[in-house]
Specification:
YmcC-like fold
C-alpha cells in the first residue's frame, strides 16, 4: 500500500469524522432580527415593509411582526397604522402558530382579525374581518404572517420547504415550494448568494399568481428578494434594504 493512498485514506476518515462531529444547522438557530424591504408595484415605489422577529421569552416562543411604511399612493390602499402580529413556537415539525392578530389601526371591527390556535384539540377560533370563525386545524397550518418564516425554519433544520396549509381569508389553501435554482444578487447590504424557491398553490396549473423567494443561506436563510409574479413577470417586488440582528428582549403578549 502506497504512502499516498494511506495519507488520502487518513485524510478522508478525519474529514468525515469532523463533518459528523460538527453541529448541524437547526431550527433553533433562528435569530431575532429586523429586516426592511423596499416595495415596488409594477415598477413604481410603494414604500417599505419591516418584518421583526422577537423572542417571547415569557411564553417560550416567538413574536413576528409586520409593519408597512407605504408611499403616499400606496397609503390609499394600505394604512400606515396597520400592524400584523403572530405568536408561535418551533416544534420538531417546524413553525406552529399560537395566535394571530391584524389591525388597520382603526376601530372598525370589519378591519380586525384575531385567531387562536388550539393544537391540543386541532381547532382554530376567533374573528376574521370582524366575523366569527371556528374551524379544524390542519397539520403544519400557517397564518399569512408565519408562512413567511415556515420555509426559513425548515431550511435551518436541513429540510426542504414542505407543503403548508394557509388560512387565506376564510379559506384553507395549500402551497408547495419547488426549488427553482440559485443566483448571486447585488443588494443594498452587499452581494449575497441565494437559493430560489417558488410558492405555488397545490396542483398549480401554470396560471395565476405565484411568489418567488431568494433565500440567503449566509443570512440564516432569510429572503433578500421576494416577488409576486403574474404571467411570468414580477407584479409586486420586495428587495432588502437593511438587516439588523437584534437582542432577545421580549415584547408584551397583547397587540
Amino acid at each position: 500500500m502506497s504512502k499516498t493512498f494511506v495519507w488520502i485514506t487518513q485524510w478522508t476518515v478525519l474529514t468525515v469524522a469532523a463533518l459528523t462531529a460538527a453541529s448541524p444547522v437547526r431550527a433553533d438557530d433562528l435569530r431575532p432580527h429586523e429586516i426592511t424591504y423596499h416595495t415596488t408595484f409594477r415598477g413604481f415605489s410603494a414604500g417599505d415593509l419591516r418584518l421583526s422577529l422577537i423572542r417571547d421569552e415569557a411564553n417560550e416562543g416567538w413574536i413576528y411582526e409586520t409593519r408597512a411604511f407605504p408611499s403616499f399612493l400606496a397609503s390609499l390602499v394600505v394604512s400606515p397604522e396597520s400592524l400584523e402580529r403572530s405568536w408561535f413556537r418551533i416544534t420538531a415539525q417546524g413553525v406552529q402558530p399560537k395566535r394571530y392578530a391584524l389591525t388597520d389601526g382603526g376601530h372598525d371591527p370589519e378591519h380586525q382579525t384575531e385567531l387562536t390556535y388550539d393544537w391540543a384539540h386541532n381547532r382554530m377560533s376567533g374573528r376574521v374581518d370582524g366575523k366569527p370563525l371556528d374551524s379544524t386545524l390542519e397539520p403544519s397550518q400557517q397564518d399569512v404572517n408565519t408562512i413567511r418564516l415556515a420555509p426559513v425554519v425548515d431550511l435551518l433544520a436541513g429540510r426542504e420547504p414542505s407543503e403548508y396549509p394557509l388560512l387565506d381569508g376564510r379559506t384553507i389553501k395549500h402551497y408547495t415550494y419547488p426549488k427553482k435554482g440559485a443566483a448571486k444578487l447585488q443588494t443594498e447590504i452587499g452581494d449575497v448568494d441565494t437559493v430560489i424557491y417558488e410558492s405555488e398553490r397545490k396542483n398549480y396549473d401554470g396560471t395565476g399568481r405565484t411568489w418567488r423567494y431568494w433565500f440567503a443561506p449566509s443570512l440564516g436563510w432569510l429572503p433578500v428578494r421576494i416577488e409576486q409574479r403574474e404571467d411570468g413577470r414580477a407584479r409586486l417586488t420586495f428587495t432588502v434594504r437593511s438587516l439588523k440582528w437584534t437582542d432577545s428582549t421580549s415584547r408584551p403578549a397583547t397587540p
